[in-house]
Design goal:
heterodimer, A: mainly alpha, two-stranded antiparallel ribbon, 58% helix, B: mainly alpha
Chain lengths: 64, 137
Amino acid sequence: MKNRLRVLRAEREWSQADLAKRLEVSRQSVNAIETGKYDPSLPLAFRIARLFETSIEAIFTDEV
Amino acid sequence: MCFMCFKPSPQAKSRFRRRGIPVGIAAIALLFLVRYYFAHHTPSRPVALLLASLPPLFMVLLYALIVQFLNADRDEVQVAYRRHATTWATGGTLAVCWLWSGLAQYKVVPDAPLAVAVLIFIVFLAIALLALRRRYQ
């Protein structure tokens, strides 16, 4: 699954640590999601979408 | 993935303190007590069965409590990482124990004490945590 997390984060000039703090996860977790090594659960995906004030589909796509 | 990033909920911490620590102490104490009892007494078959099953049962209980505690992290990526490593460690331990017991059945190797399985699990868990680190980082 691909995602636009890095782009969205860069637009807000947030570091991985900033985003991790806002999502209450570790920086390593943010990195794992950004690089596509880990696909977040639906609750976490909703948290991410809410944080960026957009829809889940606007962040995550099921392209390989 | 940092193992130190582990952030269990306060409820999970107190639950583990309440259950895990006493069960851990009981498991270790039972290992020695049952061994001592069998060395000095000859219990009847039902008592022997009960006594012999106590240490492994407590060890299984301790394992369940540790896994429950490790999975109580609020960070789901960390939980997935640890769950993945625990699965590999469990599989590795089972493989070694099955192989060893198969060999011991034909007296190719000596019988090993029960506590060895715990050590094998710890070693496999450490290896799995290190090996899977890159995959989740």
